[in-house]
Amino acid sequence: MAVEFKLPDLGENVKSADIVDVLVNVGDVIAADQPVLEAETDKAVMEIPSTVAGKVTAVNVKKGETINVGHVVLTVDDSAAGGDGKAEEKPAKKEEAPAKKEDPVSGSREAAPSSTPEEKPAPPAPSTPSKPAAPRGAPVPAAPSVRQFAREIGIDVSLVEGSGPGGRISVDDVKHFARTQGTPGSKTAASGSAAKPAVQREPMSKVRKVTAAHMARCWNEVPHVTIFDKADVTDLEALRQKFKRKAEAAGGKLTITAMFMKITAAALKQFPTLNASLDMETAEIEYHNVYHLGCAADTPRGLVVPVLRDVDQKNIIELAVELTEISKKARDGKLLPDDMSGGTFTITNLGSIGTGFFTPIVNTPQVAIFGMGRAVNEPVWDGKQFVPRLMAPLSLSFDHRLVDGADGARCLRWIIDAVENPLLMAM
Questions:
Q1: Is residue 389 assigned to a domain?
Q2: Checking CA distances to 249, which of 40, 130, 170, 226 falls within 20 to 30 Å?
Q3: CATH of the domain at 176
Q4: 89 versus 1: which is more confidently predicted?
Q5: Residue 16 belongs to domain spanning
Q6: CB count, 10 Å around CB of 78?
């Protein structure tokens, strides 16, 4: 019986998506919940799993196409979802299994190619170890960000041997394939044999288009003021070192960002004007009684701002775990629209890149954004002598239509006082 699989609801106000990749072909046997599509919305790139099982009889979308929610993506014969369909799929996967079982144990990527000739005793075997074939119809186990990276360097990700659990392919696996097998002649798309044109044009991704339009609107509509100061984070860093193992045991990574999020939420309670929005049409100020803090994240597809909700109600270990999890989702391109909506204030940290002071752009309709740069040891006068202290450059940008300079300065000083006296976080 023919069953249609349609593009499902992708989140609030998301009505269409661009097809980044189609992961199945006509004739493939698929299972329910198997990813069949990579789609990009205004917010993120995500894998779309099938809700039906069986043999694919028609693929009604193609790469690069824009489709609306409810569009028929696949037609599937569900009579093939029984013993026949699955029996054909499993042997194909088991051809890969011997190579992958040895690989995770040894931790060596060379282990997989060495086992390939045993699976293919035919005469052409000497030329094929460098190209292990993926099973026809089986989904390639790689995150959207890994697929994107492979496309950018001209590698067919289906040829890459994964070293992760269940054969999961990582960026390192793609790089290894490019170095050891793609370069000698198989990496035709990325071989540097042809001279690059002086100008190369490519379409903007949906995420980049939305980011560009939003940033232009923020800059044009909001009269920005940015103030700068430094905080002595020596004691805060000592606390981070002391408790980072506890965060790791809970499944997270204790970062300065997580600690600053907790401090900032407390500051916003003292300065509610910075946790607000402006409605110029009604000439009203919306004061938010929740503290949903966005954290700007750099991803392979551009800037995204996932939101951690109710930051004021969570301890620092809980925030560290949640920040670790949502940062991974952002890097893997698996954020959902709900993960990036409802923020009342934003924090951005460029310290890991090495920058100092900078001028972050207010993420309207919010009215303020807090930026952190790289902390460095500096000589600080303690009244008697210069002593080395770890100093962090901080930036606070705000919408001057609502936030006065004095309020912004007081809020930043409150944050600095809390950072330099970490016990205030427990009070």
A1: yes
A2: 170
A3: 4.10.320.10
A4: 1
A5: 2-81
A6: 15
- Whether 200 is in a domain gets the answer no
Q: In the chain, what are the helix, strand and coil shares in percent, each to the nearest 5?
A: 40, 25, 35
Residues in the chain: 427
Task: Please check whether residues 312 and 366 belong to one and the same domain.
Answer: yes
The DSSP secondary structure of 152-200, one letter per residue, reads HTT--GGGPPP-SGGG-B-HHHHHHHIIIIIIIII-TTT-TTSPPPSS-
CA angle 364, 368, 369 (to 5 degrees): 100
**Is 70 exceeded by the pLDDT of residue 350?**
yes
Does one domain contain both 372 and 243?
yes
Is residue 196 included in any domain, yes or no? no
Residue 136: inside a domain: yes
User: What's the pLDDT tens digit per position in 369-417?
Assistant: 999 999 999 999 989 999 999 999 999 999 999 999 999 999 999 999 9
Is 161 found in the same domain as 147?
Answer: yes
pLDDT digits (tens, 9 = 90+) for 85-98: 443 444 444 444 44
Rounded Cα distance between 293 and 142, Å, is: 30
pLDDT in tens, 22-73: 888 888 888 888 888 888 876 677 788 888 889 899 999 988 888 888 899 9
Give the HSE-up count for residue 346: Cα atoms under 13 Å, Cβ half-sphere.
25
pLDDT at position 250: 93
The CA distances from residue 96 to 23, 28, 193, in Å, are 18, 18, 33
> In this structure, are 267 and 303 located in the same domain?
yes
Same domain, 126 and 62: no
Q: Which of 176, 224, 288, 400 is catalytic?
A: 400
224 classed as catalytic: no
* Site of tokens 């006509």: 26
Q: Are residues 369 and 264 in the same domain?
A: yes
CATH of the domain at 226: 3.30.559.10
Task: Please write the tens of the pLDDT for every residue from 323-348.
Answer: 999 998 888 877 877 888 899 999 99
- Band (pLDDT 50/70/90 cuts) for residue 193 is very low
Q: Which residues fall within 8 angstroms of residue 197, CB to CB, at 6 or more apart?
A: none
Residue that is last in its domain, among 47, 81, 115: 81
